[in-house]
Amino acid sequence: MTKSENGRRRERQDAHWIEWLTGIVSALLVAALLGWLGWEALMRPTTPPDLSIHVVSTQPSSGGYRVAFDISNAGTTTAAAVTVIGRLIKDGQVIEESPVVFDYVAAQSKTQGAIFFRNDPAASEMVMRPAGYTSP
Amino acid sequence: MTDDAASAESDQSEFSRFITGLARGVAGALFFALPMLMTMEMWYLGFYMARERLLLLVILNIPLLVLLAHRIGFEKTVSWRDAVRDAIVAYGIGIPTSAIVLAALGLLRGDMSASELIGKIALQSVPASIGAMLGRSQLGDEDDDTERKSTPYHSELFLMGTGALFLSLNIAPTDEMIVLSYKMTIWHALVISLISIALMHGLVYAVSFMGGHELSPETPWWHAFVRFTLPGYVVALTVSMLTLWIFERLGDSSAIEIMVSVIVLGFPAALGAAGARLIL
């Protein structure tokens, strides 16, 4: 309970037990949060972005095919401006190439994207790889 | 005759008082919501954010406004009926104010889909209605602060939550939030979190602002720290996590990345929480 008097407010000395209970629970939560962060900060090694791509589905779309994929970053550093290049290869020749750029792929996280092809990816070999990234 | 004249006069003053209240509401809505009305990410969120999250935000705003009206209502609201009426009026001010400003800024056009138009207005009406509510009370007559009044513990926590929500709504939609959490290491997050807690306590107790709180000389400092500052920080972090989730800023990130974002937004949220205790 807080009392207001002449624009100044004074906390009461004889607090209700619920205030102490809330306070103690909050103190435990904050301590757990700081402890967890501290432990992670000490124990988690800094590794560069490690990007991998997993194709989820290939579906026909208007004027071509849409290849949806997940890109995940196993490293503990975030990668920015991640370029992914998708290629269709037939008889050793690259018949089609489409790029896509992700603003960010966060550390130890995954995100979704898709690439469009005019040719059917099922009829040729499809290669998708991250081409590079910058530091955020 | 004289009775009629008197009642007509009081009707007249009642009416003009109501109009003044509306005008203050519009002023408050503009004052508080303009930063968000002019934020690019807020326009985009209006059409791409998940509709169920937008609905949740718009619905959660109603009890928030009612509680706020009950606490700081402009006509010294006592009954819940008045609080509900005040909340509806504030929401009613917030929606057309956002619609007019968005239209005036050229952000609402005839060729947009209805979902985009409504989404943009609905999203902006939330901060605008909180602004309208605060405007009606804060821009109005000075409260008679010499009277003794006491704030129950739960409403002290609620005020902190409102202040935290207000600053969070301003900052959570921006891309800077995401970039910051990617640039920071966990050590940075730890430091920010300690600074937030220290500032929350310092703003309210140590720095003698008008409306600051003080402790009786015989109370040890950590009493207020445990009873008010730490619960306030937990409230600020909860609000920060909720707004980040509603604005789809968390994505498929790992727990530690989410926590860093929550702590970054928790910094302004904690200041908002402390500010609300001083101002409201």
Notes on the protein architecture:
The complex is a heterodimer of chains A (136) and B (280). Chain A is an alpha+beta fold and 136 residues long. Chain A folds into 2 domains: 42 residues; 84 residues, Immunoglobulin-like (Sandwich). In chain A, 20% of the residues lie in helices and 54% in strands. Chain B has 2 domains: 132 residues, no CATH class; 128 residues, no CATH class. In chain B, helix 1 crosses helix 4, helix 6 packs across helix 10 and helix 8 crosses helix 9. Chain B is flat, with a radius of gyration of 21 Å. About 2% of the residues of chain B have low confidence. The chains are: A alpha+beta (136), B mainly alpha (280). At the A-B interface, strand 1, strand 2, helix 1 and strand 7 of A face strand 1, helix 6, helix 7, helix 8 and strand 2 of B.
Using a beta-carbon cutoff below 8 angstroms, give the protein chain pair with the largest interface and the number of residues from each chain. A-B, 43 and 49 residues
Count of individual beta strands of chain B: 2
Note the run of SSEs of chain B as H and E: HHHHHEHHHEHH
Q: Estimate the global geometry of chain A from the Cα principal axes.
A: elongated
Please report the distance between the alpha carbons of the first and last residues of chain A: 46 Å
Q: What is the mean pLDDT of chain B?
A: 84
What are the SSEs and their pairings?
The complex is a heterodimer of chains A (136) and B (280).
Chain A: E1 2-5, E2 8-11, H1 17-43, E3 51-61, E4 64-73, E5 79-90, E6 93-105, E7 109-117, E8 125-134
Antiparallel strand pairs in A: 1-2, 3-4, 4-7, 5-6, 5-8
Chain B: H1 2-37, H2 40-48, H3 51-72, H4 80-104, H5 114-138, E1 149-151, H6 153-171, H7 175-183, H8 186-206, E2 213-214, H9 221-246, H10 255-279
Helix pairs in contact in B: 1-4, 1-5, 2-5, 3-4, 3-5, 3-6, 4-5, 6-9, 6-10, 7-10, 8-9, 8-10, 9-10
Structural key phrases:
heterodimer; A: 136 residues; Immunoglobulin-like; three-stranded antiparallel sheet; 8 strands; 54% strand; B: 280 residues; mainly alpha; 2 domains; 10 helices; 78% helix
